[in-house]
Amino acid sequence: MEGRMAYLDRNPGIDIAQRTAVFGTAVADEVPSLAAFGAKTSHFKPHEVVYYEGDPADRIFELAKGSVMLFKLLPDGRRQVVEVLRPGDIFGIPAGKEQNCTAETLTDAKVNVVDMNHIAGSPDFQRQITRCLAAQMQVLHEHAVLLGRKSAMERVASFLMHLVPDRGGTECAGPSETGGDTRQLKLFMTRQEIADYLGLTIETVSRVISEMKRRGLITVERNDEIRLNKVCAMCQLTGKH
Amino acid sequence: MEGRMAYLDRNPGIDIAQRTAVFGTAVADEVPSLAAFGAKTSHFKPHEVVYYEGDPADRIFELAKGSVMLFKLLPDGRRQVVEVLRPGDIFGIPAGKEQNCTAETLTDAKVNVVDMNHIAGSPDFQRQITRCLAAQMQVLHEHAVLLGRKSAMERVASFLMHLVPDRGGTECAGPSETGGDTRQLKLFMTRQEIADYLGLTIETVSRVISEMKRRGLITVERNDEIRLNKVCAMCQLTGKH
DNA sequence: CGATCGGTTGAGTTCCCTCAAGTTAGGTGG
DNA sequence: CCACCTAACTTGAGGGAACTCAACCGATCG
Fold first, then answer.
1. A16 and A110, same structural domain?
2. Do both B38 and B131 map to the same domain?
3. How far apart, in whole angstroms, are the C-alpha atoms of residue B123 and residue A173?
4. Range of the domain at A196
């Protein structure tokens, strides 16, 4: 009814599970750490499901390499991507007995998995989890502002700036840089996934990107590869300045 | 520009701080627990600020009694309430060195405060934090779906249903109840605060509430006191069924 | 070379926002 | 006790940003 074009319509025949999980924020490219706690490592191809919403939540996952998204579905098929994870992020920690999101890979991914009880006793690990959850929380706060208060243009600009390390943050490095105020980005997400992350439709995302092209802010090298021609100008569009 | 009517326009002369924190989910009415770790207890009146975005984040807060909201502001004054806390919730745990939200009371409130280092060593407490953060995370996921994918009517219905314990959840108690499918709710929030929580304008919230009145779903006893006449029907409007 | 998949573009509509003018409920003081 | 004031909320009219539906485009692949 009030819904945007539904995920379930696009993907007929999907059986939905239900309820309980988590997500993150991080930096590096390959990170070991749960390994120390006797984790098993699993490998995934792009667009494979790590777990479904409603699966029993008795293990802790750590993204070691690649990219994973967490999303929730409404019964009529509307989808919201609630977090996009990067290497180092911990996920799958439940509040109840079941996962509350579905976790699906965006790229090839390496995931460390440990049984919950296995590490419940380690203070070191508890501290690490706390740190990680707090960081993820902060990202979720930021995202709530985006979803609740930003225009389509601001959402897409914010999304792109999040992919630029060391820019747009508290102490932005500024456009210094040898070679001008420009950056090459790899998206790892389809327009549909971006739309479901930003609370928009695929058409709106496409239109905004076209508008940015028209203004000379970006060059679309490939569908999943964008060159920011004016990083600072893009940053101005995020609504944070 | 693309912004909704701005918080700063409504509250001229407010000086904004900036950056880093957290929030929650809970149950009881008065909860001690940090007390065991030598916490100091502070009392607050309604609409007092516990800390500002940008304040140094070196303490942990636990809401013992009352209600607190966390919000973020954009520079042009748009506000997003990112979490509404209940007794038992822990907040103020930073990802960086600064709070990333402003914390403001909604009601009279009692808050336990402990120095960060004071409890860093306790595994018991670490575990409790993890549990609490995971629960808050789940609420944030849910809220992202609301902000990204739900209509105004669905948002308000979801908001009201969140105030009804034991209903609308995974295993809803159903309309059994002695005395019919009805419930009295106290809001503790103004229309403006509700709007800023749900990513709407005050006018839209007001219109939706009026529409619910017209349909006989609710009776507005006072501005901050609403009677749900048909809890199940309200639940149907949340988009989760 | 047609088929398919992901993305773009256009036309029309709708939901919610903006602006502006009421209305109501409390509180205060004459 | 009533007139007045203010703050919070409601209601209306109009407009615009983003949605829906539908057609089209371009790249990749068997």
1. yes
2. yes
3. 38
4. 150-236
In a domain, A89, yes or no: yes
**Residue B94 with chain A: CB contacts under 8 Å:** 134, 138
Residue-averaged pLDDT of chain A: 86
Quick one: pLDDT at residue A86? Answer: 94
To test the contact with chain A by mutation, choose from B142, B145, B155, B192 the residue with the greatest count of A C-beta atoms within 10 A, namely B145
Residues B35 and B52 in one domain: yes
| B157 CB below 7 A from strand C atoms | no
For residue A108, pLDDT over 80 is answered with yes
Contact A126 B130 (CB under 8 A): yes
Query: Largest alpha-carbon pair distance within chain A?
Result: 56
Among partner residues B70, B127, B148, which is closest to A147 by beta-carbon distance? Answer: B148
Residue after which a domain boundary falls, among A102, A125, A146 = A146
Element (H, E) at A39: none
Q: Is there a single domain that holds both residue B38 and residue B113?
A: yes
A141–B170 CB contact, under 8 Å: no
CA–chain centroid gap for B58, Å, is: 23
Residue A202, nucleotide of least CA–C1' distance = C7
Chain B positions in Cβ-Cβ contact with residue A121 (cut-off 8 Å): 123
Q: Tell me how far apart the alpha carbons of residues A62 and A34 are, in angstroms, rounded to a whole number.
A: 7
Q: What share of chain A is helix, strand, coil (3-state, %, to 5)?
A: 30, 25, 45
In a domain, B203, yes or no: yes
Q: What is the pLDDT of residues A209-240, one digit of tens each?
A: 999 999 999 999 999 999 999 999 999 999 99
Q: Which residue has the higher pLDDT, B36 or B179?
A: B36
A218 sits within 7 Å of strand C by its CB: no
Q: Which residues of A touch B2 (CB under 8 A)?
A: 150-151, 153-154, 239
- Do A156 and A181 lie in one domain? The reply is yes
Strand D nucleotides, any atom under 7 Å from protein beta carbons: they are 8-13, 17-22
How many separate domains does chain A show?
2
Alpha-carbon gap, residue B209 to A41, rounded angstroms: 51
Most confident of B1-15, B67-81, B84-98, B162-176: B67-81
Tell me whether residue B61 is in a domain: yes
Instruction: List the CATH number of the domain containing A187.
Output: 1.10.10.10
